[in-house]
Amino acid sequence: MQKSMGERLKAAREAANYPSATKAAEALGIGLSTYRAHENGQNEFGPEIADRYAKKFSTTAGYLLTGEGPRKVERPGPRMVVTSFDPDEQYNEGFAEGVEDLSYSREHWQPKIEGATPEVDVKLGAGSGVVGEVINLPVGAGNVAGHKIVAEWLIPSGYLRNEAKASPNHTIIMEVIGDSMQPTYMPGDRVIVDLSQNQMATDTVYAISDGYSEPQIKRLQRVPFTQPSQVKIISDNPALETFTVELARLTIIGRICGHIARK
Predict the structure, then answer these.
(1) How does DSSP classify residue 77?
(2) Which helix H or strand E contains 152, and what residues bound it?
(3) Where is this region: Disordered (predicted)?
(4) CATH fold group of domain 5-66
(5) Do domains 5-66 and 78-263 have the same CATH topology?
(6) Where are the domains of the chain?
(7) What is the mean pLDDT of the chain?
(8) What is the DSSP letter of 220?
(9) What are phi and psi for residue 157, nearest 5 degrees?
(10) Between 109 and 254, where is the model more confident?
(11) Strands (E), 13-96
(12) How far apart are CA 61 and CA 51, in angstroms?
């Protein structure tokens, strides 16, 4: 007897090593109730959603929709995986050469190894930043532009979610350059950036831009009783000046949720 659409979706999810509907919905970035309705057979889904599920679960949309076609699609394995990362070693350069076909966009990026967090070719300036190479990621019949991935970091999703208070699906790694955030953040350090936290919810450290220049890492402090709302942009280096701007003029790229320091 042929399996139902929901049963095929569940089989594909389990084969892709997602132990629960909750984990699958989180990885897909959709509501748990929506996903469960599809897997339980309460609601059917069309080709567009099937294609999204198929990419995440390494299967085919045809299998999910009708049971026809291969159930399992083998993805190329990682050319190199960074588990212990030393920016001073040539290993980083070798990794970059090995993933020259990878770029990051929040909606479409797929890691070479399950659970990895990408480091993108963007350097947060503790002064002025650097935007590196942008390449095209093929998606369907078109392309999506994204920042080149220079490394993948294996950071447990439980740590990101529970300790760093970050969304694992929207988290990237960036390198720090410059000295304006010394001694807290040193040149060559990496920071964990949650792109989903792109509004100023609390006084802390963010990746920011004025919308025109390269991104920077700065400490933000809201100025109370100001209208329009103003914010202080603070460098941890005491030799540098603090300045104030209207919050609406500031582009917040994401909140700094973690720090990987060089010793």
Answers:
(1) P
(2) strand 142-153
(3) 1-20
(4) 434 Repressor (Amino-terminal Domain) (1.10.260)
(5) no
(6) 5-66, 78-263
(7) 78
(8) E
(9) -65, -30
(10) 254
(11) none
(12) 5
